[in-house]
Design a protein that fits this description.
By secondary structure, the protein is α+β, with helices and mostly antiparallel strands. It is built from four helices and four strands; from the N terminus they run H-H-E-E-H-H-E-E. Helix content is 46%, strand content 25%.
């Protein structure tokens, strides 16, 4: 039953990848640069749709820099509401909505 074992291993990998993606979203919302650095691969890209300041395609370096400024730009970071998480092989997509209150320091 090697086929079933391979399918189970792939399923485990996909679930692990989903968990990493959700850790990424949580860390991004908190501005937790250390966790972001730990969960992102060097070639990772994040794509944020919409019209906010974070919209667009960002590299690992860009994401860490932006996350480091969240404390200055927002009151309490970004709150993400997860809508869907989809994964296949080594790719994960997280669809979410975000809410952030602007900082009063600006």
């Amino acid at each position: 039953q090697p086929g079933k074992r391979a399918m189970k291993e792939e399923g485990n990998m996909i679930e692990a990848n989903k968990a990493v993606a959700l850790r990424f979203v949580t860390a991004l919302g908190k501005g937790d640069v250390d966790t972001l650095g730990a969960v992102m691969a060097d070639e990772m890209q994040a794509v944020a749709t919409g019209t906010c300041l974070l919209s667009g395609t960002r590299s690992r370096t860009d994401i860490c820099a932006a996350a480091g400024m969240l404390g200055q730009m927002t009151r309490g970071g970004i709150e993400f509401s997860i809508l869907t998480v989809t994964a296949e092989a080594d790719r994960v997509s997280v669809e979410c909505r975000s809410l952030a209150l602007p900082s009063t320091n600006a």
